[in-house]
Amino acid sequence: MRVSPSFRFILRTVMLVLIVALAGCSLFHRGARKGDPMDTMTVEELYRKGVDGLDAGNNDLAIRSFTRLNSRFPFGPYTEQAQLNLAYAQYKDDKPDDAYSTINRFIKTYPTHRHVDYAYYLRGLINFNRSGGFLERYVGQDMTKRDQANLRQSFDDFGALLSRYPQSIYSADARQRMVALRNMMAQADLNIALFYLKREAYVAASNRAKAVIETYPQTPQAGDALAVMVRSYRKLGQDKLADDAERVLKLNYPDHASLHGNWPHYRSNWWKLIPLSNRG
C-alpha cells in the first residue's frame, strides 16, 4: 500500500506537535516542582508570611508575600488588608513611589474601609519622609532650583485626613506634622530670599520675603523675612518701605539679630525643623 506524500507530511506534522507538547508538559512539571512555594500557599498562609516579614523587619519578604497574595487572590478581606500592608512595607523599604501608588489605589478601591483613615495618614507620611530626605540632601545648595512639591503634597495629604476624619487617632500627629511642614515651606522660601539678598538681587529678595509674610504669617521665619525686606528696601533706596518693615520688626521681634548688626547668617539650619521625620 502506497502512502501519498501529502499524508506523510500530515503524519510528520502531527508527530512533531505531539513531541513538542510532551516536552512542554515535562518542562512545566519540572518547573512547578522547582517554582516559588508562594504559588501553592493558601491566602491565610501568604498573609501570615507577609505579617511575619513586617514583624521581623524583612520588608522584602513582606512585599513579595503581599504582592503575591494580591495577584492570586484579588478579592476578599485578606486582600484589602494585604494591600494596606503592602503600602506600609514599601514605605519602610524606602520605595516611596511604589508605596504612594499602592496607597492611592487602596483609597480609590476601598473608600469606606474601616482603616481608610490610616491610609490617608500613611499617604501623608510617605511624602513627609521623602520631604525630609529632600531637605537634608540639598541643605546649602541654591534653593531657587529645588522643587517643594513633596512638601506641599504631604501637607495636602494630612489636610485631607483632618478634613475627612477629624476624630481619627492619627489626626493629632497629622496636625503636628502639618505645622512642621508649614514651617519647612516657609523656610524654603526664606532661603530663596536670603540667596537673592546675598547676591544683591534686592528686588527679588524683597518680593520673596514679602511672600513669606503673606503666605506663612506667624511662622518662626516671619522675623527673618521682615529683616530681609528692611535690608533690601534700604539697598534699593526705598526708605519709607524700609522704615515700615523695620517698625513691624521691632514691634514683633525686638531682639532680632538684624536690629543689633549681627545678621544675616546665610548658613541654613532648616533640617532642625523636621522633629518627626523618623517616626511612623
Short note summarizing the structure:
With 280 residues, the protein is an all-alpha fold.
Can you describe what's shown?
With 280 residues, this protein is mainly alpha-helical. The chain has 2 domains: 36-110, Tetratricopeptide repeat domain (Serine Threonine Protein Phosphatase 5, Tetratricopeptide repeat); 115-280, Serine Threonine Protein Phosphatase 5, Tetratricopeptide repeat. It is 70% helix and 0% strand. It has 11 helices and no strands. The chain has helices at 5-34, 43-55, 59-72, 77-92, 96-109, 116-137, 149-164, 171-198, 202-215, 222-236, 239-252. The longest helix is centred in the N-terminal third of the chain and has 30 residues, at 5-34. The chain is elongated. The relative contact order is 0.07.
What is the overall number of helices?
11
Radius of gyration: 30 Å
Give the second-level CATH assignment, the architecture of the largest domain.
Answer: Alpha Horseshoe
Q: What is the H-and-E element order?
A: HHHHHHHHHHH
**Level-1 CATH class name of the largest domain:** Mainly Alpha
In this structure, how is the largest beta sheet organized? none
**What proportion of the residues form beta strands (DSSP E)?**
under 5%
Number of strands: 0
First-to-last CA distance: 84 Å
Our count of domains comes out at: 2
Helix content: over 70%
| Global mean pLDDT | 83
Overall 3D form? elongated
Structural class: mainly alpha
